[in-house]
Amino acid sequence: MRFDIISVLPGLLESPFAHSILQRAQKKGISEIVVHNLRDYATNKQKSVDDYPYGGGSGMVMTIPPFAACIEKLQSEREYDEIIFMSPDGETLNQGIANQLSIKKNIIILCGHYKGIDQRIRDIYVTREISIGDYVLSGGELPAAVLVDAVVRLIPGVLSDETSALSDSFQDDLLDAPVYTRPADWNGHKVPDILLGGNTPEIEKWRHEQALERTRARRPDLLKRGE
């Protein structure tokens, strides 16, 4: 699976993709993540990619030509399943969206900055807009990193234990059950006895009950969504 990320600040994405699961996925050849500097596609001497908004108002708007040039160059090299714009007014990222995207082959992600990007980029090229929450960040790079991480870990072969991703919170519209490890007794705080007995069916039943209880207490909206 390939991600092409278009950014005016590509350096912001160096660290997230150079460590841990995302690094291993790339080394295994399961995922390819390529970051493109938008300024490389600017044609003016200053390599600027923004201009004043028509109609006045504060802030600067990212212009069409650099995005169009980069997107069309990439499209000439391969076919893309999605062109995603990370935007606070997009659909909110959830596990279901991550699952959907994990079976795609090639994805372009656009990272905005300043006041936003020219609406015509969104109208002409973008196939999907995704938000990571109801707040505004300085740019789309961190949301892009979140999206890639959420998707890549679901691709078969990325995690050492493939069942791990399937049991994550939100996979069944439930939060995960509590987890424990050694020591079994730490300063009088003990691991639940049922987890120490080795009765797998009973342990799975307990985990499901705990997941329901935790979801009901912390995120009842998830239970309503699953009804």
UniProtKB/TrEMBL annotation:
**Which catalysed reactions does the entry list for this protein?**
guanosine(37) in tRNA + S-adenosyl-L-methionine = N(1)-methylguanosine(37) in tRNA + S-adenosyl-L-homocysteine + H(+)
Q: EC number(s) of the enzyme?
A: 2.1.1.228
- Locations listed in the record: Cytoplasm
Q: Which domain of life is it from?
A: Bacteria
- Alphabetical UniProt keywords: Cytoplasm, Methyltransferase, S-adenosyl-L-methionine, Transferase, tRNA processing
Report the protein's function.
Specifically methylates guanosine-37 in various tRNAs.
Subunit annotation: Homodimer.
Q: Which family does it belong to?
A: Belongs to the RNA methyltransferase TrmD family.
Q: Which GO MF terms are attached to this record?
A: tRNA (guanine(37)-N1)-methyltransferase activity
**GO terms for CC?**
cytosol
Q: Which gene encodes it?
A: trmD
What GO terms describe the biological role, i.e. biological process, of this protein? tRNA N1-guanine methylation
Name of this protein: tRNA (guanine-N(1)-)-methyltransferase
Query: Does Nucleotide-binding appear among the keywords?
Result: no
Q: Which NCBIfam families match?
A: PRK00026.1 (NF000648), trmD (TIGR00088)
Sorted alphabetically, which Pfam families does this protein's record hold?
A: tRNA_m1G_MT
Gene3D superfamilies named in the record: 3.40.1280.10, tRNA(m1g37)methyltransferase, domain 2
Q: Which residues form the tRNA methyltransferase TRMD/TRM10-type domain?
A: 1-224
